[in-house]
């Protein structure tokens, strides 16, 4: 394998762009914001810990992409050649990072710096990419672990060890690098990779840059992974349709569409699933908040005090600082994400049903609303249970006031989600927008708007002047409920119009071809 | 223990592909059951079988992509689990659904693969590109399934392999390109003495080039014979009764299949005995017109043998 072939798969320019963005855009700023460490220390640790991990990931991505293709084990010497070239790339990157790490005024001994850089660069080799989810979990998990490690007192421990036993750090880094290389380029593991059915694409391939053919790649990725997902679904319990005859009513077809997508799962089970799944992001949010806000910014706070703050934050006008802003800004956004995910997931069935386009549009619309409502109920329950649990732990006597902001957080979700889904349907019909990458831009802007609305609601809710205003009471009052109801119904009508127009002309075998790219469960 | 560790490092045989008691299990499912096979050099072998018979599994084991649960497989003289550069440079595999690097153009992919093969033949590459009507400037992701299959063929043959394993290489190709591909395979055999194992359901095409047939059914080999021997032994007999009514069944063991009314009957038979028809005519007082079967007609008879005997 010559240099030309290696650089052809690596695409150095894009690799550099992604790596730079990652290192400085995420590593440095997240680190600075979350941990609030002094600038030189942040810069140094970004360069020797977060930077190498992300650079290692970006350098390895194209190699994994090749390894996950069926032809790879048949190419003579390819495994060893890739190992050789990756070793070279790691060595050069280590030298660059090592040189850059000499500039900040905060320093560990050089030997320790090198050890840390080597470990960070080679850790991504442990990524087996057994599934798309596991690959992302390892990547983001690794990143979060590094951040958490640095945010906790372990950072001081690391700095102490680095200062007192630099040679030990180097030794550990070298051992880690050697082990990771052995693991990552092991012959049997490489062979196993090539036989996995799911498609693996690195960031260099799916960068949304017009002219690189990324939209074709994205479509291909969706098709491949959809096929793989369909294969996995076969044999799942409860997918058998009973022998009952499908009638001619619209709701019969709603049941068929639901069954085609989810199998024989009851609605109660769906709510419970959404409830449980809803907790998955809420707990880490609470935990991250507790660690970063509680331990670092407001030092000395206990868990019970933290729960008390959280419960109090449910009241309007209670300014609990970052805790309230973060929780009640982030949580509506997550609720929104769940409801829209449920909406997009419900349209995933790609079967040639013997019904007219209009009937299918109506059935899909009802299924979308039904599933979205279940997701909303499940998520609302998460929100209220979280506040109740926090109040109970803190020993607060809860009254209706404690649920003011959770209530707003829950009520704001349906209109936002309905409008968002409607826009998705309108946008999906504009083919040229997809081909030039405009879809990514539109969706990104939409998501930013939604996050901003969530953040605004979170910020407003803690404003001091609201402390004596009975907003929760006003919301529950008939007029408040009517206002919310009107807005929601208008959003609903907009979505219905969008769905009907979309199904008039869409490809019925694949009504939302790009859904998977943005909604992994779709 | 890794199955490859149980294999001897080299296997003293001139045959490019040897399987000994190979069994492959995927969980509870047994894809191959005690398969033994030896394919001599320079032969074009048609690997036949119904869907799920184990053809792809056998080819994956032969190419070292899959290690057998039991038994040994030697490819180009080395255990298939330990294939290395000396063997891989002489081995070509065209997969049924081989995924390439989709973002590359065909030219980029050819150059990428060529960099690993010292014997990559640019002239051959140019000729195959012309024969298969491939535009090297196109991105792989934008190709139709047929064009992707052509890329798979290009990547599998341009290094002039000694052993070429083709897993459904023609399923998405049009008849004109299929014919060109078959001509090309014959040329490869003539020039290099390449051994070819081809698995395909397009039997009319396969029978034009193969000289040996290996048939699998439910993971077991049910046929391993020269194609011309099969052609001589399988036949269709049209019986016309000379006097009286034909029996509803015939006891002769070589009769595989029987259809007919009282006056006429159509038998599918397998017998290497040239005088069998004459003896049969005399015994049953019938006139016999014989017709050799093509591979398409033989296929159901071959693949149903095991089920009949069991």
Describe this structure in words.
The complex is a heterodimer of chains A (522) and B (310). Chain A has 522 residues and is mostly helical. In chain A, 74% of the residues lie in helices and 0% in strands. The relative contact order of chain A is 0.08. Chain B is an alpha/beta fold. Chain B has 2 domains: 225 residues, P-loop containing nucleotide triphosphate hydrolases (Rossmann fold), CATH 3.40.50.300; 78 residues, Alpha-Beta Plaits. In chain B, a hairpin with a 3-residue loop joins strand 12 and strand 13. In chain B, helix 6 packs parallel to helix 7. The two termini of chain B are 35 Å apart. In chain B, 42% of the residues are buried. Chains A and B meet through helix 1, helix 9 and helix 11 of A and helix 2, strand 6 and helix 3 of B.
Lay out the secondary structure.
The complex is a heterodimer of chains A (522) and B (310).
Chain A: H1 3-10, H2 12-35, H3 39-67, H4 78-100, H5 110-122, H6 132-151, H7 154-164, H8 166-184, H9 187-194, H10 203-206, H11 214-233, H12 250-262, H13 267-297, H14 303-312, H15 322-345, H16 357-394, H17 404-411, H18 413-428, H19 431-435, H20 438-461, H21 471-476, H22 478-505, H23 515-518
Helix pairs in contact in A: 2-3, 3-4, 3-5, 3-6, 4-5, 5-8, 7-8, 12-16, 13-15, 13-16, 14-16, 15-16, 15-17, 15-18, 15-20, 16-17, 16-22, 18-20, 18-22
Chain B: E1 17-26, E2 29-39, E3 44-49, H1 55-62, E4 70-75, E5 78-79, H2 85-88, E6 91-94, H3 106-114, H4 122-132, H5 145-157, E7 163-167, H6 175-192, E8 195-199, H7 203-209, E9 212-217, E10 220-226, H8 227-233, E11 234-241, E12 255-260, E13 264-270, H9 276-284, E14 286-292, H10 295-303, H11 305-309
Parallel strand pairs in B: 3-8, 3-9, 6-7, 7-8
Antiparallel strand pairs in B: 1-2, 1-4, 4-5, 9-10, 11-13, 11-14, 12-13
Helix pairs in contact in B: 6-7
